[in-house]
Design a protein that fits this description.
Distance between the termini: 38 Å
Structural class: mainly alpha
Order of helices and strands: HHH
Largest sheet: none
Strand content: under 5%
Radius of gyration: 17 Å
Helix content: over 70%
Number of strands: 0
Number of helices: 3
Length: about 60
């Protein structure tokens, strides 16, 4: 197995742990702020894009 193949295997094995840790972190932040995770995601989107009209986000989602 090549070095690249070994790296790909390691990445595939580690990715679920990374995603799980990320979700747990987001839940903890939302809990500390006293808001649902979905509101935290919306706040993050607003911080990324700035204010947009009602149809602004869907058109940017592609």
């Amino acid at each position: 197995m090549s070095d690249r193949d070994e790296l790909v295997v390691a990445l595939v094995e580690e990715m679920p742990r990374f995603v799980s840790a990320s979700v747990r972190f987001q839940v903890a932040v939302a809990h500390q702020l006293g808001m649902p995770v979905t509101d935290l995601h919306a706040l993050g989107a607003l911080l990324e894009t700035g204010p947009v009209g009602a149809g602004g986000w869907p058109s940017s989602w592609g």
